[in-house]
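ok trying this again, last paste got cut off
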Amino acid sequence: MRIPIFVSMRRRWYKRYSIPEKYRPYIFNKYVLTTLGFLVWLTFFDQHDFILQHSYKKKLNGLKKESRYYSDQIEKNKKTMEELFTNNKNLERFAREKYYMKRDNEDIFVFVDENNQLLTEK
């Protein structure tokens, strides 16, 4: 009986590589290969892959940080508003310092440095 050529030339593809014989059953186990395939699928091809999840998490952390910043600013502005509206002297001081408002008989001079930066007291 004659053996067809394609059957006699057929070899296991992993025998061409130098994988020790004692590791082959573990590496080429169907469960290991399935798990590796599943991990590759989840990492690169899935709609909700790991790379996309990482970018979403990074974006979420940035938004949380931004939310904390704006919450702090809101609290700071609430305190400032409370100070301003409880006392007329504070309101006048704020208007003079922030918006350079003046009375009718006054002149205002604003000092700036050579970079056109407003000089402030330290």
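PB: full thing came through this time. The chain is about 60% helix and 0% strand.
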